[in-house]
Amino acid sequence: MKKLSLLLASVLLATSAFAQSDYPNKPVKIIVPFPAGGTSDVMGRMVAEELGKILKQPFIVENVGGAGGVIGTEKGVKSAPDGYTIVQTGVGQNAVAHGLEPFPKYNSKTDFVHITQIHTGPNVLLVHPSTPFKTLKELVDYAKANPGKLDYGYTPAASGHMAMEFFKQTAGIFMTGIPYRGGGPMLTDALGGTIKVMFLNQDVAIQHVKAGKLRALAVTTAQRNLLYPDVPTIAESGYKGFEAVSWSGMSVPKGTPKAIVDKLEAAMKEAMSSPNVKAKMEGQGFVVPVQGSKAYTEFVGKEVDRWTKVIKTAGIKTQ
């Protein structure tokens, strides 16, 4: 009986090892926890296309929107840890959400194996051209002299909202926030001059800045952005160390075999270094960050801590 048990265990181990070495031998699903058409979806489909070429199996995007990315992420983290379901992780659902009640039913530090980061991109601090502000210092000086008189727009819990809260805390200013259900209505009011200030993703803002309908004062990344070479960073405008970026990456549920994680990590590094991906990213002002599981895992942990602190300091509630 003991010999039979050992034999069965050996067979199972051999079968498991073969399955891992043969991975992937069927289509792989990537859960993008947002509706089709947005930046997250575009990034997910770009990676899916490249991984399909490299690993010779279809990588299929499934959009599971809701609750700022939390619903799709919960579905992904509960899936079998076999490498056939990848979860697109990101700043909202895997950092900001951990500071907001109701808290998600997953822990982004412990319930995932983070494979690699895919992109970062700045928010741009924009003002309506009817305002007199030509520099960040001028805006801050006005806000300090006139607390609460300057309105800004935001979409609750979005990266632009977090960037604004972080900036207000860093600069020591108070402005009046006007919440919007989505970026579209907020942008419409900003273009019309109803709101005077906001943070917006760089790829959405660029056409309006070039047309002179909005004025860019600063970007939130540590370095200047290719789309905005003449726009200073917030850090170089007097707030050393300030950084607040939109980001995403690819992760799998905890328990996924290391051999499969290693294979996915190598494939994603290859995908993100391809000239095709680099051209697409840079053309929209995105940056390919440092690649690899170790770097992304550390980054996610720091982002959870950063935004939880900002949210608690600001007293932000979702109810």
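(ticket continues) Second input and output from the same batch:
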Amino acid sequence: MKDPYSGNSGIHPSTGPAVTTTNGAGPRNLQLFIMAQDGTVVHCMPGYWNPNDLSAELDFADRLHRVWMDRSITEPQKKVLFAQEQLRHIQTHSADVVARSELQGFDKQFCYKNHVDDAIANASLIPADWHDVPKEAFKTTDVILHERMAKQPFVNYSNFNIASFVNYGSHHYDKHEKDLEPETMANIRAHNLRDVLHETGDPGPKARVNHLASKAAAGYPNPITKPREVEKAMVDGFWGYARKADWPKAERVANYMIEKRPESPTGHEMKAVIAYGRGRHAEAYFHSYNAIRMGSKHPTIIGIYQKSRTAASSAAK
């Protein structure tokens, strides 16, 4: 994360959800290297990849690995075969693979403004005012990937030029975090993934604190899974408070969500989690019931509903 080529798309909480995106998106943040046992790179997938497309590329990497291990072929011959196969493989990509591999808008702008020429298919199609840029003006990431791999045939990982391999992506993606409410922003920063990563085997004090907080929050089922289709920052903030059992702050977020989106079950889901975490089973039953009645199918809420109903019934007897 300290290398100059590394990207930073703002705050990514360690509790944040996984989402799908386009093939090759986020190349500076992630590279999936497939290597031989001696450290030779047989393939590398930059950024995110659709599972089906990744599977096909892994099969391709397996074939390249067989070439590298074949003692009947000289190393210069292997390098020629490597480059040829990388370029040939582009022709096997289906229309669906190509469609899933379009460059993201901000990456297109980065490539154009920074003269990343091997990512541009036809610069004459790009208007000066940057409106309605046709997708044909840029190569797709599946093409960029294989063309760049062809230039580094069977290179050892220690000599692989990652910076030049991933430079079709923007260094920074503005997620408009400066517009978030300050308290939520502070909580998100407290769970920034970069801040809990360490270069040594020592998890570090922050990681240890997060681990203890997770253990303390184990009183309710599946606490990491979050409701979907809600304001991501508010949900992340809520779960951060819940893991620390900071119920007053969690309550404020829940009240805010109920006021902002009264038609959504999200606020009631949060209220159910808070009540269950505080041991108020009748209250947890009430809010989880309301959330489910409003359409919630969240496994955490269903679990709380079932457990709190049993607990509330037992208490009533």
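Agent notes: Residues 51-69 form the longest helix (19 residues). The beta strands are 31-35, 41-46. Closing as not reproducible unless the customer responds.
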